[in-house]
């Protein structure tokens, strides 16, 4: 079994912890690779059996999107502001890694959303897709279609399409529902509509299409920006690829994230 460890240079103490974790892996006789986030941003692809990431949610998402095998199991250790995608903390990082090295862990699979732009796949979202006007402060008009059935044409600041995992992220900030990871669904959450449109939850077996007829728009997949031209057609459906997280405790991760997110 081969490990990879990614850490962010912006948090100096994460580098020291990454070194300690690599030494621990070496002591157990496993091969490993160590990357900085900057290595990953510069195009280093990560190939391993288990990925350990030290950083915030942005570091974790970036690392996942640069895995050669997108279903490689990931364990996050929080060194960021939120750390909602990380189960580990600096104070228990070594203990968590020891459990992983001893096989005392289980895996959790989380759905992703496949995104197509004008019939061409452009990526899979782990948390959410956000579509807005490319010009800050300007509204966007879009039509929501579910399984070839037109739902509504709406005008507002944008729209969030979220996975259950992402429901506790930007979706929750926009007053969307927090959805348990065990529920196989997609959340549609319009942002500041001129006429109120509530968040909608649909089964993940359905397909969402968004027609953006009049303006250039900005399409973000987990924070990655792609600009679309007028008359763009965006299709969103459950991906065949899952995000796989390593878990070392039996507590509901959804409950952990929600408690942390709402400071309960």
Structure report:
By secondary structure, this protein is α+β, with helices and mostly antiparallel strands. It folds into 2 domains: 3-104, Rossmann fold; 112-240, Tumour Suppressor Smad4 (Sandwich), CATH 2.60.200. Helix content is 20%, strand content 42%. The chain has helices spanning 12-27, 37-41, 57-65, 93-101, 170-173, 253-261, and strands at residues 3-7, 32-36, 50-55, 74-78, 106-117, 120-125, 128-133, 140-146, 149-162, 185-193, 200-203, 208-212, 217-221, 224-228, 232-247. Strands 5, 6, 7, 8, 9, 10, 11, 12, 13, 14 and 15 form an 11-stranded antiparallel sheet that branches. Strands 2-1-3-4 form a 4-stranded parallel sheet, with helices on both faces. The protein starts with a strand and ends with a helix.
Summarize the structure.
The protein is of the alpha+beta class and 264 residues long. It has six helices and 15 strands. It has two domains: 3-104, Rossmann fold; 112-240, Probable inorganic polyphosphate/atp-NAD kinase, domain 2 (Tumour Suppressor Smad4), CATH 2.60.200.
What CATH first level of the largest domain would be assigned?
Mainly Beta
Based on helices, strands and strand pairing, what is the structural class? alpha+beta
Radius of gyration using CA atoms only:
19 Å
The number of distinct helices, counting runs of at least 4 residues, comes to 6
The number of domains is 2
**Unreliable parts:** none
Between the first and last Cα atoms, what is the distance in angstroms?
38 Å
Kindly estimate the percentage of residues that lie in beta strands according to DSSP: 35-45%
Q: Could you state the order of secondary-structure elements as H and E? A: EHEHEHEHEEEEEHEEEEEEH
CATH fold group of the largest domain? Tumour Suppressor Smad4
Mean pLDDT: 94
CATH architecture annotation of the largest domain: Sandwich
Largest sheet: 11 strands, antiparallel
